[in-house]
Amino acid sequence: MPKLPSISGKQAINCFEKLGYKTIRQKGSHVRMHHPSDKTRKALTIPLHKKLGKGLLRKLIRDAEISIEEFQKLILLILSE
């Protein structure tokens, strides 16, 4: 199984925005996102922490219905910008 990178909440939000997710609201340090065109995908709640835990990141990837490899490619794209 591929290793997940250590990323912040802001970087995770940027990755999911590349997948088409939109921010619908923020309450405190948590951002709620949904996919407007694909209603079968679950809504995501992402904390704006400096470092996201591996379990939470894995759950977000699973809820977004993408593979870890796809997510790693998105992270590399975000970090290279």
Write the layout of secondary structure elements.
Elements: H1 9-18, E1 22-27, E2 30-34, E3 44-47, H2 54-63, H3 68-80
Antiparallel strand pairs: 1-2, 2-3
Helix pairs in contact: 1-3
Protein name: Addiction module toxin, HicA family
GO molecular function, one term: endonuclease activity
Pfam family, one: HicA_toxin
Stretches with pLDDT under 50, minimum 5 residues: none
Overall geometric form: globular
The total of helices stands at 3
**Second CATH tier, the architecture:** 2-Layer Sandwich
H and E order = HEEEHH
**Total DSSP E strands:** 3
The helix/strand class is alpha+beta
Query: Approximately what portion of the residues adopt beta-strand conformation?
Result: 15-25%
Count of distinct structural domains: 1
CATH topology: Metal Transport, Frataxin, Chain A
Radius of gyration: 12 Å
What is the average of the pLDDT values? 91
What topology, given as strand order, has the largest sheet? 1-2-3
Keywords: Endonuclease, Hydrolase, Nuclease, RNA-binding, Stress response, Toxin-antitoxin system
Pfam families: HicA_toxin
InterPro entries: HicA_mRNA_interferase, HicA_sf
Family: Belongs to the HicA mRNA interferase family.
